[in-house]
Amino acid sequence: MKKIPLILMGCGGVGRQLLQHIVSCRSLHAKQGVRLRVVGVCDSNSLIVASDVINGEVDDVGLTQVCKAKSNGASLATVSSHAMSGQEVTSKIIEVVSLLGNSTGLAVVDCSASSETAGILSQVVDFGCCVVLANKKPLTASLEVYDKLVSLPRRIRHESTVGAGLPVIAALNRIISSGDPVHRIVGSLSGTLGYVMSELQTGKPFSKVVTVAKSLGYTEPDPRDDLGGMDVARKALILARLLGHRLTLDSLKIESLYPVEMRPSVMPIEDFLVNGLPQLDADIQDRITKASSKGNVLRYVCLIEKTRCEVGIQELPKDSPLGRLRGSDNLLEIYSRCYNEQPLVIQGAGAGNDTTAAGVLADILDIQDLFP
Ligand SMILES: NC(=O)C1=CN([C@@H]2O[C@H](COP(=O)(O)OP(=O)(O)OC[C@H]3O[C@@H](n4cnc5c(N)ncnc54)[C@H](OP(=O)(O)O)[C@@H]3O)[C@@H](O)[C@H]2O)C=CC1
Ligand SMILES: N[C@@H](CC=O)C(=O)O
Q1: Rounded distance from Cα 255 to ligand 1 centre (Å)
Q2: Strands 156-157 vs 309-317: parallel, antiparallel or unpaired
């Protein structure tokens, strides 16, 4: 039986769902001759690690306990009885990485929403480990970090960073490696903003709809990452970099749905959710009504061309492909030499813990040939 040792960073909505998928797929994976051996799981202030990382694992009872504690809002420290500083967590991860990276191999799976993991992941690559990401932040950090992470392309998978479980990165990689030049990508790449925009058409207030999107697991931990366009911008940057564009986040044009007075450094998240959001209801409803009077709808659109990479609201005919989108669905059109008049279109659920974790799991299985 092939064993894939892995360490999971981040045990929130996506990370927990991944652990549940791993446990529930045990017999399927056994039939395929593979076992995912979870050697460690961490959150922001603790790490659970197998007592014998070379041969052992955190067993399924332990993983279930971790999921239960985290879904009750507890820290992993309550399971490990051991709170750690961020630095201690990092050192321990690097210790495991150095033990396993060049022997059994190790997949380091980032399901956190932190920008701090970029530093660990850059080191992990040097130890021969594979990297699997749902977290977009490491791939949208500096070009130096990006280049390091993708320096061994067979060892990195990040399908869930764009379009959740949709096969966007895989499709694009196939087009690129066949030498077919991509000259335009356009689409709706935010499950949250897709859901919000289509729900607003039914007359519901913006503040309520955003709150529901958060409860459905579509939003980032702070929904301002979605509403400010930053989450879509990160996806756009990941795609643009995949196409070879040497861009950084600050070079993108990004439209925000909230004003600077409500940015995270000024307004705490609780204040934004309770008091900030309702102040935005009237304006956005006004924009929806104006668009609707012309037979149009609003969609938050991502556009990547040779010299343009931008994200923002567009008014579109309600019976256009993007205008017809409903709920958290994403839609991406890829134009290239082979897909010229008629683009390659990828559409489906673009957010949610289940589909995102499924994408991460498929990525882990996809690198199995790299393990002995
Ligand atoms: N939900 C979705 O539809 C999709 C999500 N993603 C991405 O998946 C990632 C996870 O999202 P989600 O599960 O909703 O987020 P959550 O906020 O629910 O979970 C984040 C987890 O990361 C942990 N964490 C924070 N900082 C660190 C750190 N430095 N090292 C290790 N762990 C850390 C948190 O710990 P603690 O519990 O202690 O706070 C928490 O367990 C995000 O990057 C998101 O962009 C991608 C595609 C779709
Ligand atoms: N918050 C994101 C989740 C997936 O990346 C979204 O709404 O699309």
Answers
A1: 24
A2: unpaired
